[in-house]
Amino acid sequence: MFARQGFYQSTVSQIAREAGVADGTIYLYFKNKDDILVQFFNFRAKQVFASFRQEVDKSGNSTDKLRSLVRRHLEEFQRDGDMAVVYQALTYQNIDLIKDQIKEVSKMYLDIVGEILEKGQEEGTMRKDLYISLAKRFILGAVDSAINNWLRAGRKYDLASMTEPLIDLFIRGIGNR
Amino acid sequence: MFARQGFYQSTVSQIAREAGVADGTIYLYFKNKDDILVQFFNFRAKQVFASFRQEVDKSGNSTDKLRSLVRRHLEEFQRDGDMAVVYQALTYQNIDLIKDQIKEVSKMYLDIVGEILEKGQEEGTMRKDLYISLAKRFILGAVDSAINNWLRAGRKYDLASMTEPLIDLFIRGIGNR
Amino acid sequence: MFARQGFYQSTVSQIAREAGVADGTIYLYFKNKDDILVQFFNFRAKQVFASFRQEVDKSGNSTDKLRSLVRRHLEEFQRDGDMAVVYQALTYQNIDLIKDQIKEVSKMYLDIVGEILEKGQEEGTMRKDLYISLAKRFILGAVDSAINNWLRAGRKYDLASMTEPLIDLFIRGIGNR
Amino acid sequence: MFARQGFYQSTVSQIAREAGVADGTIYLYFKNKDDILVQFFNFRAKQVFASFRQEVDKSGNSTDKLRSLVRRHLEEFQRDGDMAVVYQALTYQNIDLIKDQIKEVSKMYLDIVGEILEKGQEEGTMRKDLYISLAKRFILGAVDSAINNWLRAGRKYDLASMTEPLIDLFIRGIGNR
DNA sequence: CATGAATGAGTTTTCATTCAT
DNA sequence: GATGAATGAAAACTCATTCAT
After folding, report:
1. CA C57, CA B174: separation in Å to the nearest integer?
2. Smallest Cα–C1' distance to nucleotide E2: which residue has it?
């Protein structure tokens, strides 16, 4: 519902009806309307991001790790497009309510990418002169943007298949020669 | 005010007070509250984006054009950080109200980048095997992301100075060899 | 709880928690929330007032009877300060719910005082020209007021020790002779 | 309406209807429902009590002053019986909201009575052995009680005519001599 | 043109009460 | 008898919008 209408356009009554419960029941599980968003973030989005770390640890060299991360990212967001919408909306807004949560999740992601880039520099597959703190944000931004495009295009094509083209753009830009 | 509090958190009364007029006066210039957002977009954001075209036309080769576009983009958004906040918030949300306007502005931008990339391919400075419709979105997304990072970091550093590092990442990725 | 927060500020859930039972259990012993107040009045406050009669019957002359009544009144309310709070709050409000109970209890008290005053007139210890129906209310009011002062002062001093000073004021008044 | 139904039994909608305005209009003049009570107290009850001082200053000896005070008190409360109900209900409850206001108003009254009693002692019309801090509360309590009885009896008789009998009881007490 | 008081529909939230377990 | 999750009616409050001045 938040994905379709946005948080402020969704009323608690609607949410309750969609959930098949009475209005008051909502308040047995959420402190207030805001808390619905907060709990969504803590129990859904955070989990997804936490799963990225495992995926990366499995892969071998840094390029594979980056590929795994991006693929997993796109796959998860494709699997739950509504979460994707809400996550994006929240990330690019400045909502006090969950500002800290957003920062935390974002940092988690950037740390992973940062480690991959450093490892890549050691391996010799990534450029030594990379401005890492920019490069990692650049990568997250580009993936976010790919997701945003997919959403705005109506979720019609296969988002995960964007992995290779994206990696290609990243690597040939940051790859050593 | 929209930048600080968001659209739904801002009341018409607050807007009127900030503007130094009475509540009713707002309705002499705007059909309703929504219309304030629509008109903002039409007369502020659209103008900015329209100015990009001129900037690009001035420059010489495609790399210079891309550099000019990105620099102008960052400069304008830095100059009016509040507009930047609102623009970003709207872009990554799914507001029916201005969905079309967003698409239009976005298309305007992507068209410019697309032309630059094609020109670059002709000139031999850009890779011939580029998946252009992805690459141009990739570039917009990366610039958006740079702006978003700047906003979330409190607008403290010089955003325009990110131009060269960004271009470097783009070009060495998409440049021909 | 009613003493601390008042009847309307206390929820049935709170009452149940304080009583160490489940919410629903309350409704096995009380018809509804109002009934809690009604039963409190019938089984607690009424008992206390009924006990006054016995106390008075024990004493000898009318002055002693009045002294016994006031002392017992102050002692009982001091013993159960929370009941005192609730009783006072209810007496000076106009709650349909227990209007009749209040009247009954109040009449019970005024009847006792009235009898004492009449006895005193016969004995020659009370003024013959007393406007009895005023005087008895005057006495109840003054005792109530002493209790109210004690409550508002935080129940810190010994309420029962106010008996003598009060009786002195009743009997002799404030005028010099 | 508060006099009739009590504060918690009165809804803002009812208040608005009685006032002949829309619900929202209430909130242009009162911060919230509680504020209605607070403002009532500050602008109505406080004024009444402030007027007592003037009345007392006019009279001559201390007995006259006491008589003037009591008469004015009864007259004002008789004139605005609804205020009387609300004032009494609030005084004998423990509402945090206006606890301080009640204390202030009550102190104002007790101070006046205290001064009168001291003056009476100097004049020789009041007993020298009076426990003044008790005696003044005793007087306020007795007057309050007279008002309360009048209210509960349906405001049918002339409250102000109770002045002389009350003063008589204060001054001479109930004891025969 | 501008004002700002008034409106009332629409929202969030509370909580007495019920009833299947 | 006891439970406590679920209910939904009712209440407080907000705020976009209107319109007489």
Report:
1. 108
2. B25
